[in-house]
């Protein structure tokens, strides 16, 4: 990894952690102990720039550092990484092999599905051990709680990535933190509008579930 790439990844990790500190809120009342934070948006952007391995490294760094200011256990780090990597690495891997607008959209959609499915499985396996509750209780929470939370969370992140990728990429390029070839695609108004629509829909659904609208 070049010095410039290491610097850029470090800056992105710092951005992800800053967002994690500033923005954090529940999305689904039935699982109010699960909170949304937007760090995955930055981790996905890093993956789209440099590939799935970068998303994996950023996920490990951010998840590891998060326990120092939020507390937690190694199990929290593992679950955090599973959720992030299922989304970010899937999207980055598909985009790496199809660096087009359609590839980005398909990669993010696949990431949403992979993250949601993986968290249903791993919460069913790990949550009873972590909280010392019957597995049957967790099973009853999967469809009304864990499924909509992870689906909304991943969809909101996907929309924000589509909306923010090009501006973030442009800032990094103009700051000489990344090479121009990483951002060959022109910004598409359609992609921005799609990202805005997906993010707005996820936010409105969240607000409706919380009874705020």
Automatic annotation (TrEMBL):
Pfam families: ECF_trnsprt
Primary location: membrane
Superkingdom of origin organism: Bacteria
Transmembrane segments: 77-95, 107-131, 192-212
Membrane topology: Multi-pass membrane protein
Keywords: Cell membrane, Membrane, Transmembrane, Transmembrane helix, Transport
Subcellular location as annotated: Cell membrane
Statement: the UniProt record of this protein carries the keyword Membrane: yes
InterPro entries: ECF_trnsprt_substrate-spec (IPR024529), RibU (IPR025720)
GO molecular function, one term: riboflavin transmembrane transporter activity
GO cellular component: plasma membrane
Similarity comment: Belongs to the prokaryotic riboflavin transporter (P-RFT) (TC 2.A.87) family.
Purpose of the protein: Probably a riboflavin-binding protein that interacts with the energy-coupling factor (ECF) ABC-transporter complex.
Record's protein name: Riboflavin transporter
Organism per entry: Holdemania massiliensis
